């Protein structure tokens, strides 16, 4: 009995979520799409990837893309948890379809930033590079986005953002160092 009641409540919550998505779509259509902020947000989806495609370390593209994919997945997971708990918010909605998912931070800025940081001076001390990347991302980037109303940290400390960026960097760093990438067509020697 309780399970069926839970299913009914769950369906009701999904209907409310669908209604909320329609509200976000109307906000984008009626309030944001004509503003410079919306166009800047859209550009933040596209321009970092175009720059990366031109300046990437071409012989390491696969490794860098694996690191970038891990950063996307991890940043999405962190953001969804934090948004669910109300720790921060993103007031400007760029793409109304799943407005909490499709943000330039997840799909462009964080992965491309980590991939560039990894490929620039690859022999540099990874601890120093991670600290530098995290400081630029947290204290520079997130404070800038707060100033232009792309990000509302509420009571979230920039120090916590720093730790998140450091984690993202080191996950990417670890993935680019994995030596077990081998073509599937090669024999393993075991029969």
Question: What does it look like?
Answer:
By secondary structure, the protein is mainly α. Helices cover 70% and strands 0% of the residues. It is built from six helices and no strands. It has helices spanning 2-32, 36-55, 61-84, 104-119, 126-147, 158-177. The longest helix is centred in the N-terminal third of the chain and has 31 residues, at 2-32. The radius of gyration is 20 Å and the shape is globular. The termini are far apart.
Mean pLDDT over the residues: 89
N/C terminus separation? 54 Å
Order of helices and strands: HHHHHH
Rg (C-alpha, Å) = 20 Å
Q: What portion of residues is helical?
A: 55-70%
Helix count, DSSP H or I runs of 4 or more residues: 6
Question: How would you summarize the topology of this molecule?
Answer:
Blueprint: H1 2-32, H2 36-55, H3 61-84, H4 104-119, H5 126-147, H6 158-177
Helix pairs in contact: 2-4, 3-4, 3-6, 4-6, 5-6
What descriptive keywords fit this protein?
single chain; mainly alpha; 6 helices; globular
Give a nutshell description of this structure.
This protein is an all-alpha fold and 191 residues long. The chain has helices at 2-32, 36-55, 61-84, 104-119, 126-147, 158-177.
């Amino acid at each position: 009995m309780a399970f069926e009641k839970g299913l009914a409540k769950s369906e009701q919550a999904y209907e409310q979520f669908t209604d909320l998505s329609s509200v976000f779509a109307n906000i984008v259509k009626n309030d944001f799409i004509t503003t410079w902020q919306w166009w800047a947000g859209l550009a933040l989806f596209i321009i970092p990837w175009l720059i990366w495609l031109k300046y990437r370390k071409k012989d390491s593209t696969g490794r860098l893309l694996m690191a970038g994919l891990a950063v996307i997945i991890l940043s999405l997971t962190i953001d969804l948890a934090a948004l669910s708990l109300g720790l921060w918010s993103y007031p400007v909605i760029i793409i109304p379809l799943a407005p909490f998912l499709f943000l330039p931070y997840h799909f462009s800025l964080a992965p491309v930033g980590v991939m560039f940081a990894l490929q620039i001076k690859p022999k540099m001390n990874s601890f120093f590079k991670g600290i530098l990347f995290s400081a630029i991302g947290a204290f520079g980037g997130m404070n800038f986005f707060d100033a232009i109303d792309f990000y509302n940290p509420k009571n979230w400390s920039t120090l916590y953002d720093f730790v998140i960026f450091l984690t993202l960097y080191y996950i990417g760093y670890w993935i680019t160092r994995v030596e077990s990438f081998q073509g599937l067509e090669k024999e393993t020697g075991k029969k």
